[in-house]
Structure formats: structure tokens, C-alpha cells
Automatic annotation (TrEMBL):
Residues 1-103 form the YqgF/RNase H-like domain. This is Putative pre-16S rRNA nuclease. Signal peptide: none annotated. It comes from the Bacteria. The keyword Zinc does not apply.
Length: 140
């Protein structure tokens, strides 16, 4: 069973997918979106869902550090509902606090240039969100 991981931003959507056994997450791509105009990259997401036979979607849920839900979290909840309605798949909102920062630190440690980091940061954040979820599922 493959699971799709998404890092939802205002301009991009980082995408990762699990292996068939649900053990590891691999980054696929970053999709350009336009949240302001309701363009969420659903056509490309549909292609990826079909290509990888995805059965579940995990979306990073950006809570504030104190656990409250701010404007970005509310936008993510709305996006998650649209994904659920569009693709008729189970959607899980997964706490993503610090995932982008962790991805940035990992890329800096790997000596990836600033320009290249900007191109892959959302995809890496999606990998970290999905891997965290997969690890949690393994422990259950």
C-alpha cells in the first residue's frame, strides 16, 4: 500500500511517496501551485496517485509551537478537505512542526547550495512528513 505525502505551501506543493511496504519515503517532485487562485495542482496529483497506486494521503499540518492552529493550519485543513473530496481517498493531517527547518538543516549539512536548497526544500519536507508518519505506523 503506497501513501502519498504532501507539504502544502502557498506557492508549491512538495510531494513524496512511500515504497510499497510503507517503510520508506522518497521525494518525487515539487508542484507549482497558486493558492490565491485555487490552483492546487490536482491534475498532476491525479497522475501521481494513479502512477503509484496511492491508497492514502498524508498532509503536513502546520500547528503553532503551542499546539494551536493558525491561519496556515486553517488553509491546510481546507486544502485537505478539497483533496479528500477530489480523490476519494483517506486523508490524514500529520503534525509537521519544524519539518521544513529540519529539511533545511539536513540540506545545509549536505552542503547543498542555497539555490538548489530552494528548489528541493518542499520535496524534502514532504519526505520528512511522510517518513515520520510511516515510522509512527510501524510502532503501532
Amino acid at each position: 500500500m503506497r501513501i502519498l505525502g504532501l507539504d502544502f505551501g502557498t506557492k508549491t506543493l512538495g510531494v513524496a511517496v512511500s515504497d510499497e511496504l510503507g517503510w520508506t519515503a522518497q521525494g518525487i517532485e515539487t508542484i507549482r501551485i497558486d493558492e490565491e487562485h485555487g490552483e492546487y495542482g490536482f491534475e498532476r496529483l491525479r497522475q501521481l496517485i494513479e502512477q503509484y497506486a496511492v491508497e492514502e494521503i498524508v498532509i503536513g499540518f502546520p500547528k503553532n509551537m503551542n499546539g494551536t492552529i493558525g491561519p496556515r493550519g486553517e488553509a491546510t485543513q481546507s486544502f485537505a478537505e478539497k483533496v479528500k473530496q477530489t480523490f476519494s481517498l483517506p486523508v490524514v493531517l500529520w503534525d509537521e512542526r519544524l519539518s521544513t527547518m529540519a529539511a533545511e538543516r539536513m540540506l545545509v549539512a549536505a552542503d547543498v547550495s542555497r539555490k538548489k536548497r530552494k528548489q528541493v526544500i518542499d520535496k524534502m519536507a514532504a519526505v520528512m512528513i511522510l517518513q515520520s508518519y510511516l515510522d509512527y505506523k510501524q510502532l503501532r
